[in-house]
Amino acid sequence: MSSSPSAPASSTAVSVPVTRFAPSPTGYLHLGHAYSARFAWAAARASGGRFLLRIEDIDRTRCRPEFTEALIDDLRFLGLSWDGEVRVQSAHRAEYADVLDALQAQALVYPCFCTRAEIASEIRQAETAPHDLPAPEPVSPSGLPVPQVGRLYPGTCRRLSRDEADARIAHGQSYALRLDSTRALERAQTLASRPLVFYDRRFGEVPVTLSHVGDVVLGRKEVRASYHVAVTLDDQLQGVTLVTRGEDLFHATHIHRVLQTLFGWREPEYAHHPLLTDSHGERLAKRRGSPSLRSLRNEGRSAAEIWALAGLPPLA
Ligand code: GLU
């Protein structure tokens, strides 16, 4: 595709791993983030590689600059250091819009004008019809429920004619840009000349499917970017060779492999790590009230004590 960068911005020897920690500054980091950052850092440092920091702040409504400052300060407090410039996604919006334009030019994304209520009603109707929508598949090999994957979009606007869609856009109607998942996967398989897979250090070779995400939203009228587009482009531009992240994002990797293949981008290796849990087996997440790194620091905990809470030894 025309807008695709064909080579990473910085040239990196193939044998040297490049990893990254890519938090979204929607709040203070918690122990799960510290674990994830350390995981990426250790994977790079163990073999003389590079560890990058990227700020994933394209969602203007949820991200705040003070959380970016705080997370950088917390990571430094913990003794983590990163290589090169910090990439801040909000400074690269035009690049993500180019990716969406290229997908749109190939008819691999389409505008969807449905409201949430319309989608819910379509799904209810489809469930009472003889041909039910396929049930979402479990996508985490260790059986972790993946909360982001809800009911699949029933494809209503995929069936709109080009003229109808153009007319609605001309009338100023809001829309999301959805991936035509069937067409995109087929195109990617054709380009790859074989069924797509990704390689995960923990789970081995994983066949790519989009049946668990369906026609996922890749952008919106006002925001021509999304997590999937931005993360895939950035990993390519930054020369990331090993993508490490929590298992809760396992489902997203399928989408990313399809995008990488469509654009002819390098295939990174993956390592989806387990999520930290508390003594009751509950996932540590800020919305469940687990302490932030900030509050642990305010209590006077040292970096070594915080690492111990994350189940890790102090940094040497
Ligand atoms: N920004 C994502 C998050 O904070 C992580 C993205 C990734 O590692 O791919 O959950």
Poorly predicted runs are: 2-13
Tally of individual helices: 10
Tally the beta strands.
10
Could you say which small molecules are bound to this protein? glutamic acid
Please state the overall shape, judged from the principal axes of the Cα atoms.
globular
- Return Rg in Å: 20 Å
Strand order of the largest sheet: 1-2-3
- Quote the distance from N terminus to C terminus: 45 Å
Structure, explained:
Residues 2-13 have low confidence and may be disordered. The protein has one domain: HUPs (Rossmann fold). It has ten helices and ten strands. It has a three-stranded parallel beta sheet. It has a three-stranded antiparallel beta sheet with strand order 4-5-8. Strands 6-7 form a two-stranded antiparallel ribbon. The protein has helices spanning 31-45, 65-77, 93-105, 116-128, 162-170, 181-192, 227-237, 250-263, 293-298, 303-309, and strands at residues 18-21, 50-55, 87-88, 109-112, 176-179, 197-200, 204-207, 217-220, 242-246, 269-273. By secondary structure, the protein is an alpha/beta fold. It binds glutamic acid.
